[in-house]
């Protein structure tokens, strides 16, 4: 789960990290009052969406002179006008794709005197199963771009959970960032606070880009992105309260409410599978035979008829789906339950695209019988390879 910048900065402030004073508004009429509560004389007006690259992005049907989702205002009135220009508009960045995201919130904060821009992130390194730090002197840029062009400017190391974090780690970050004097002490404290927050809040990723050195020599987190482990949200009610469902894919949101593991992709073949490993194998074999999966969808081992019905409805709600492949290996999941769910879903939403079903395992004969007697136009498959070839042929002609 991701949160907005203003929410991330509130958490940073709670854990003692230096951030600018700011106000969030949802209506243009609130902007003047919000900006007036800040010191100025420079205000930063920031569109709040769950995507990076806001400053370099553009609004659809932008008027002349409108540039990006992060702009500077030199007066309270100008801050209000910029807010009015951005609210309700669709912001397109390299992370949103051409569809963009609608801006429903604006964050107005005090400007900062920037001397240097740095990069600092914490993330879960799945290779080492540890929390890793990533630090670079190239702040304000996409870290992927830095890694591709100047990888020597990135310092990465992990923290051994057995010994935990020490001041040495903070000094290592400080030296990697080229900090000196009192800045080193500030960095050690910042690293300590960030690591504690990362662990206590069950984060997956924390990115501060840029972390700035101001002209007075002090450090400040100028922007922040945070992602949290969905599987740990049950013990983080304060984080769950920050969830903005309008920023999430509607299909993924609907799937989460039925405890379905769904991730939207860009292909044309919808997949419904039980088991994450089998789902990955199904996606791979679709690609092998020349097509692209439209989603990852694991209905789980104990799915009910209702869950299967909802899963099918979610797949068919994607306008990009030109065909559907159901691939079920019935261990805990019974094939007859899948069959009943498919029939119920088709009767409710209709079937406008080719459907290939491969069933194997518990009650497989009963499942096949239920489908064959349903009168549905279903293409049966004997194994995974056969199923993949049939759905690709049906879609590609």
TrEMBL record:
Q: Which reaction does it catalyse?
A: (S)-malate + ATP + CoA = (S)-malyl-CoA + ADP + phosphate; GTP + succinate + CoA = succinyl-CoA + GDP + phosphate; succinate + ATP + CoA = succinyl-CoA + ADP + phosphate
For the ligand (substrate), the binding residues are: 274, 331-333
Identify the Gene3D superfamilies for this entry.
ATP-grasp fold, A domain, ATP-grasp fold, B domain, Succinyl-CoA synthetase domains
What top-level class of enzyme does the UniProt entry assign? ligase
Residues that coordinate or bind Mg(2+): 209, 223
**GO MF term set:** ATP binding; magnesium ion binding; malate-CoA ligase activity; succinate-CoA ligase (ADP-forming) activity; succinate-CoA ligase (GDP-forming) activity
Q: Which protein are we looking at? A: Succinate--CoA ligase [ADP-forming] subunit beta
Q: What family is this?
A: Belongs to the succinate/malate CoA ligase beta subunit family.
């Amino acid at each position: 789960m991701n949160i907005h910048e203003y929410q991330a900065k509130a958490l940073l402030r709670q854990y003692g990290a230096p951030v600018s004073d700011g106000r969030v508004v949802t209506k243009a009429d609130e902007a003047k009052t919000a900006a007036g509560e800040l010191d100025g004389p420079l205000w930063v007006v920031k569109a709040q969406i769950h995507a990076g690259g806001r400053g370099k992005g553009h609004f659809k049907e932008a008027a002349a002179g409108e540039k990006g989702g992060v702009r500077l205002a030199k007066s309270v009135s100008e801050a209000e006008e910029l807010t009015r220009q951005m609210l309700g508009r669709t912001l397109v960045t390299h992370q949103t794709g051409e569809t963009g995201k609608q801006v429903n919130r604006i964050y107005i904060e005090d400007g900062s005197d920037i001397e240097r821009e740095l990069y600092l992130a914490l993330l879960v390194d799945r290779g080492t199963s540890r929390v890793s730090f990533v630090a670079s002197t190239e702040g304000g840029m996409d870290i992927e771009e830095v890694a591709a062009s100047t990888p020597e400017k990135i310092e990465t190391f992990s923290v051994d959970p057995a010994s935990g974090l020490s001041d040495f780690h903070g000094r290592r970050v400080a030296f990697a960032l080229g900090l000196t004097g009192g800045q080193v002490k500030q960095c050690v404290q910042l690293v300590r606070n960030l690591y504690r927050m990362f662990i206590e809040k069950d984060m997956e990723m924390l990115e501060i880009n840029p972390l700035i050195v101001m002209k007075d020599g002090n450090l400040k987190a100028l922007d922040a992105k945070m992602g949290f482990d969905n599987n740990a949200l049950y013990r983080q009610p304060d984080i769950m309260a920050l969830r903005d469902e309008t920023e999430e894919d509607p299909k993924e949101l609907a799937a989460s409410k039925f405890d379905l593991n769904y991730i939207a992709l860009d292909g044309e073949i919808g997949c419904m599978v039980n088991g994450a490993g089998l789902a990955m194998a199904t996606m791979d074999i679709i690609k092998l035979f020349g097509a692209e999966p439209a989603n990852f969808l694991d209905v789980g081992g104990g799915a009910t008829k209702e869950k299967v019905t909802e899963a099918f409805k979610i797949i068919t709600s994607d306008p990009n789906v030109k065909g559907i492949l159901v691939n079920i290996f019935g261990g805990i999941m019974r094939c007859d339950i899948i069959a009943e769910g498919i029939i119920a879903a088709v009767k409710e939403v209709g079937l406008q695209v080719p459907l290939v079903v491969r069933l194997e395992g518990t009650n497989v004969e009963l499942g096949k019988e239920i489908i064959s007697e349903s009168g549905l136009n279903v293409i049966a498959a004997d194994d995974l390879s056969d199923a993949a070839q049939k759905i690709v042929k049906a879609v590609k002609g």
